[in-house]
Amino acid sequence: MEIFDLRVTVERIEGRSVCGLEVGDYFELTESSRVRIPPGRFFCLYALQSVIPLLPAKQRRLPESDWLEQDSLVCCPDPEERVIMRIERIGERTMRSGDLT
Predict the structure, then answer these.
(1) Could you tell me the pTM of the whole model?
(2) Which residues fall within 8 angstroms of residue 55, CB to CB, at 6 or more apart?
(3) Among 22, 45, 64, 82, whose CB has the most other CB atoms within 10 angstroms?
(4) pLDDT tens, position by position, for the chain (101 residues)?
(5) H helices of 45-92, where?
(6) Domain ranges in the chain?
(7) Which region, left, alpha or beta, applies to residue 9 given φ > 0 means left and ψ of -120 to 50 means alpha?
(8) N- to C-terminal Cα separation, the chain
(9) H-run or E-run covering 83
């Protein structure tokens, strides 16, 4: 099966960043389930939890008419911060479905 590696990047902050995230901060999801955060950086748990439910779908090729194929922005749930994150596909790999859980 073909699966995409993803990068989730803070694209903009429309409020005040209470959690300390900055524009350009990111994490990557690779090899189906490996989360990588650059050394010395962090990613807010609440921002992370807002994007996690969308990642499995974004890892797969979707029909062009699917809204998730066309939309890549996610907002942190904190209304004071309004951290906007972009999900982007950064690579594609072939994996055997039997190797995945």
Answers:
(1) 0.90
(2) 6, 8, 29, 87
(3) 82
(4) 899 999 999 999 999 888 999 999 999 999 888 999 999 999 999 999 999 999 999 999 888 888 888 889 999 989 889 999 999 999 999 888 777 66
(5) 45-51, 55-58, 67-70
(6) 2-99
(7) beta
(8) 13
(9) strand 83-94
